[in-house]
Amino acid sequence: MRQATETTRRTTAERRRDTLERLGSERDVWVSTSHPDHGPHQVPLWFRWDGRAVWMCTGANSATARNALKEPRVRLALPDAYDVVLLQGVATCYPARDVPQDAADAFADRFGGWDPRTADAPYLYLCVTPRTVRAWRGEAELRGRVVMRDGAWLA
After folding, report:
1. Per the domain annotation, does 5 fall within a domain?
2. For the segment 136-154, what is each residue's pLDDT rounded down to a tens digit?
3. pTM for the complete prediction?
4. How far is CA 39 from the centre of its chain?
5. Distance between CA 126 and CA 5 in Å, rounded?
6. Nearest to 90 by CA among 58, 62, 54, 129
């Protein structure tokens, strides 16, 4: 786990910069979905940030896939309880046979050639374009933690 040692409160622009760097470099994201009868469901998945959206892939028959197909509003969290990054958006779901080729190729390249399109079991790609992003390090940064609102990065 990465622990920031600075005590200086970051500006919104600095938080945005740091968030984008983490989205481009980290591998795992916690995905939270919900089912109307069974409630919340949360799992870690590998992800790829394309500069605009988060791409993930999960088994087509998984609870995550079933939930996202019924209720596409999802929340994502990078795995660090001190350097928090939370994203909220709507998942667009693509069966492996229908995923845009450039997105699937980039996903496979990112993960050493693992390509869900060629797997025996069916997979579902989830693409989440964030509408809201919150980022903070410790209690000192709780105020002003929103760095994206309504899909637009704040200054």
Report:
1. no
2. 998 889 998 999 999 999 9
3. 0.92
4. 20
5. 34
6. 129
Cα 42 to Cα 54: distance, rounded to the nearest angstrom: 16
Q: Is residue 1 part of a domain?
A: no
Mean pLDDT of 118-131: 97
Q: Convert the pLDDT of each residue in 7-21 to its tens digit.
A: 689 999 999 999 999
> If we measure between CA atoms, which residue out of 130, 136, 132, 131 comes closest to residue 15?
136
CATH of the domain at 32: 2.30.110.10
How many domains does one find in the chain? Answer: 1
The answer as to whether 21 is a domain residue is: yes
Give the integer Cα–Cα distance in Å for 19 and 17.
5
Side chain identity at 121, as an amino acid letter? Answer: A
3-state secondary structure (DSSP) of residue 96:
helix
- DSSP assignment of 6-75, as one string? --SPPPHHHHHHHHHHHHHH--EEEEEEEETTTEEEEEEEEEEE-SS-EEEEEETTSHHHHHHHH--EEE
* Domain span at 110: 12-145
Which two tokens mark 24? 């481009």
| Contacts for 22 with CB less than 8 Å, ≥ 6 apart | 78, 83, 85
Q: What tokens were used for 69?
A: 């197909």
Within-domain flag for 155 = no
